[in-house]
Amino acid sequence: MNFSFPIILASNSPRRQQLLADLGVQFEVKVVPVEESYPKDLPPEEVPLYLAQKKAGAVAKTLNSEALIIGADTVVILNNAILGKPQNPDQAAEFLHRLSGNTHEVVTGVCIIYQKKTRLFKDITRVRFDNLSASEIDHYVAACRPLDKAGAYGIQEWIGMVGISGIEGSYFNVVGLPVQKLYKELKDLRYLISDI
Of 22, 41, 73, 138, which is the active-site residue? Predict the structure, then answer.
């Protein structure tokens, strides 16, 4: 996938970096730290869009070259409440106990900034967890330490293999980047130069 300008991914997430690379996009990573705060009256599904734009916008302010910037943020929503990245192993276990036996939503917001124009979109996936035992949760938290993951889990990890009974929507969205929608956005905006 060839572009006539640099692509910047405004994310340190190794999962997003791998997915973008697997899509065939050549890119570099540039991150400007931002406070991941948002207005308290913002609907939960809009939070990842707000934060994705915040992350991409912070990078855009530092660049002089013409580059396309991709920012993204993922949240887990259970009963209209956001489960963010756990602060410690105890909170990670608490999140997983809350997710156990329930269906939740994973929402990833994506912001594309190019030539001072901004495009925002999101993807929503419904994820169903079987009932998880306390020992399963404790094992996962100790073995994988999911403190860097929204909702305290990675679908591609052990807990996803043994605990997730079904999903409705994009699997890759749950991993952290809705690559199918991102690919379509790039094509629709005529950012894609190749003829595939």
Answer: 73
What is the block-wise mean pLDDT of the chain (196 residues), using blocks of 10 residues?
A: 83 96 93 94 97 97 90 97 96 98 98 93 98 98 96 97 98 97 84 49
Q: Report the distance separating Cα 70 and Cα 29, nearest Å.
A: 10
The residue with tokens 């994009």 is 170
Would you call 171 exposed, middle or buried from its count of C-beta atoms within 10 A (0-12, 13-18, 19+)? middle
- Distance, CA of 7 to CA of 4 (rounded, Å): 9
Q: Where are the domains of the chain?
A: 7-188
CA distance 36 to 52: 10
- The answer, as to whether pTM is greater than 0.85, is yes
DSSP track, 104-171? EEEEEEEEEEETTEEEEEEEEEEEEEPP--HHHHHHHHHHH--TTSGGG--TTSHHHHHHEEEEES-H
Q: 7-188 — its CATH code? A: 3.90.950.10
| Nearest Cα to Cα of residue 23 among 70, 82, 77 | 70
Query: Which helix (DSSP H) or strand (DSSP E) does residue 75 occupy?
Result: strand 68-78
Instruction: Give the closest residue to 55 by CA, choosing from 108, 95, 1.
Output: 108
Catalytic residue at 90?
no
Quote the DSSP letter at residue 85: -
Dig out the tokens for 17 from the structure: 């970096």
Q: Which two tokens stand for residue 53?
A: 């734009």
